[in-house]
Amino acid sequence: MYQKIRAILFYLSIAVFFVSVPLSLIFSLGYDISWINLKVSKAGLIDVNTRPEGAQVYLNNRYTNQDTPAVLRELKPGIYDLKLQLEDHYPWQNTVLVQAGRVTELKEIILFKRLPYLEKINVEEVADFALSKSHANVFLLSKEDNRVYKIDIKGKSSQAVYKLPFHPERIKKWLVSPDEKKILYTSGNKVYVGFLSAEPNAILPRDFMISVLEETADIFWHVDNEHIIVITVKEIKIFELLSQGRNNTITLATLNFKRPKVFYDTENNCLYFTDLQETSIGRYSNLYRIQLGRRQIFPSIEELEKK
Questions:
Q1: Does residue 174 belong to any structural domain of this protein?
Q2: Do the strands 262-265 and 270-279 form a parallel or antiparallel pair, or are they unpaired?
Q3: What is the dihedral of CA 26, 30, 34, 35, to 10 degrees?
Q4: How many domains does the chain have?
Q5: Neighbours of 162 (CB within 10 A)
Q6: 39 - beta bridge partners?
Q7: Does 41 or 261 have the greater pLDDT score?
């Protein structure tokens, strides 16, 4: 009797060995077995990461005990419901297709922070605003007193730096210079240049106005802060601030289209614009580029007046 039991246990151990070893190899090689139809298939992976990291990963509404960045392994081919949750952030959820033997990558999923409150940073009633190039300050036009105010990005201080000659509603477009020392604005066929200062008794160059023959369509500061680019309904011109626009004016192009689309690439100092071309078969629109050259260093008005 004892020998029979030993024999049974021996043969059972051999059977378990021959069953468990292949199964271990199957699973170690990334395969999965469906016990319903006894079908062997290659498993898939989900590689997921978020910004910021640390989001809890849920698969089919069950927590996987993993936080991002995470790799979900040994998944049967099919469609899964993936959900990512991070405290104080909006959840992210989507269906994900897992394919046999492949990695489904979900990289750099952005989780947006929940906004606990809205912060008002202005004191004066706002007609318009613009963010400085340095992103350190906000400039706003006030409806109340026609002034330009400079506010630090956190809204802790507000300084009046310029007084407009008329109500902001008459301004078609306005720009603060990249060096944050001047303001450029246009109304009708007139272009205005003003100088900014928070000091009431500061000695500054005089504001001036440039009249053009046609209505202005767009304006830009040149990268040197001492020239302006003016687009009218007929021409593209560059005006020199040193001579208050009276001398050294350059006409870059004559336009056929009264409302061109214009973009000034300050990084490469290139001006892009659309215009119509007359041909024997009619008119069609082209995109043009003017390369204004490398950034040139001109003496500023302030520097020349100090000499």
A1: no
A2: antiparallel
A3: 40
A4: 3
A5: 22
A6: 34
A7: 261
> Which residue range forms the structural domain that includes residue 253?
203-306
For residue 175, is it within any domain? no
CA dihedral 239, 160, 188, 232 (to 10 degrees): 30
Residue with structure tokens 């119509």? Answer: 276
Q: Are 287 and 274 in contact (CB under 8 A)?
A: yes
Residues 57/42, Cβ–Cβ less than 8 Å = no
Residues 288 and 273 sit within 8 Å (Cβ to Cβ): yes
Query: Residue 35 above 50 pLDDT?
Result: no
Summarised one tens digit per residue, pLDDT across range 242-301 is 999 888 999 998 888 777 899 999 989 999 999 887 766 777 889 999 998 754 434 444
What's 226's DSSP letter? S
Extract the tokens encoding 199: 């000091």
Within 8 A by CB and 6+ apart from 15, the residues are none
Mean pLDDT along residues 19-28: 52
Does a structural domain hold residue 259?
A: yes
For 290, phi and psi rounded to 5 degrees?
-115, 120
Among candidate residues 110, 144, 161, the one where a domain is terminated: 110
Same domain, 297 and 219: yes
Specify whether 105 is located in the same domain as 25. no
Q: Are 21 and 28 in contact (CB under 8 A)?
A: no
Beta-sheet pairing, 137-142 with 126-131: antiparallel
Residue 103's Cβ-side half-sphere holds a number of Cα atoms within 13 Å equal to 8
User: Which among 59, 137, 130, 52 has a CA at the least distance from the CA of 93?
Assistant: 59
Same domain, 36 and 54: no
Question: Of 84, 110, 136, which marks where a domain is finished?
Answer: 110
Q: In this structure, what token pair is assigned to residue 224? A: 């040197």
Q: Please report which helix (H) or strand (E) contains residue 162, including its range.
A: strand 158-163
5 phi and psi angles, rounded to 5 deg: -65, -40
The separation between CA 81 and the C-alpha centre of its own chain, rounded to angstroms, equals 30
